[in-house]
Amino acid sequence: xxxxxxxxxxxxxxxxxxxxxxxxxxxxxxxxxxxxxxxxxxxxxxxxxxxxxxxxxxxxxxxxxxxxxxxxxxxxxxxxxxxxxxxxxxxxxxxxxxxxxxxxxxxxxxxxxxxxxxxxxxxxxxxxxxxxxxxxxxxxxxxxxxxxxxxxxxxxxxxxxxxxxxxxxxxxxxxxxxxxxxxxxxxxxxxxxxxxxxxxxxxxxxxxxxxx
Length: 212
What we know:
By secondary structure, this protein is of the alpha+beta class. It has a single domain (2-210), classed as PPM-type phosphatase domain (Phosphatase 2c, domain 1, 4-Layer Sandwich). It is built from five helices and ten strands, in the order E-E-E-H-H-E-E-E-E-E-E-H-H-H-E. The chain has helices at 37-54, 62-76, 151-154, 165-176, 181-195, and strands at residues 2-8, 15-22, 25-33, 83-90, 95-101, 106-109, 115-118, 136-139, 145-149, 204-210. The strands form two sheets. A five-stranded antiparallel sheet has the order 1-10-9-6-7. Strand 4 (83-90) and strand 5 form a beta hairpin.
């Protein structure tokens, strides 16, 4: 599996995106921080520290990994602070295991042109002390792709107040899916940004990973 990420926006305080690789396994994490300003910056720093500290358990015990991240966030942030997060682990059997913690649904684009959503499996991180999650699994095939994004993409507004939305994002991904991954991301970002004439107020981040 190959993956690329592209962050675009006026501030990356409210978003954190990175890849974890270990041997022939790949981990994807996309988190969106609630709020802006100093509070969001501190929350992002706490989230990054929590992820780094706990990543050793991510492969074998992903539920424990995410529970630990939630606990660290809950204990080290102000009341009401939280983050949505999408975590996925992929291995050489082409199995994708994921947990969607209150994040917009990822889009699974199949090589046969069918598609599906990887929707929420638990609530957001950091808001509740008593928190748990579940992992779901999808079997991928060569040519399948997974598209992760923040709500800054789908909630971009045009001049009539209409949102860009999941349907337009899906159609753009289908239209450009034969491009290389960097070109695909650039095309998706261009369409999302071109849709809205307004000054961008929320971060736009996209990750696409393709099964080879």
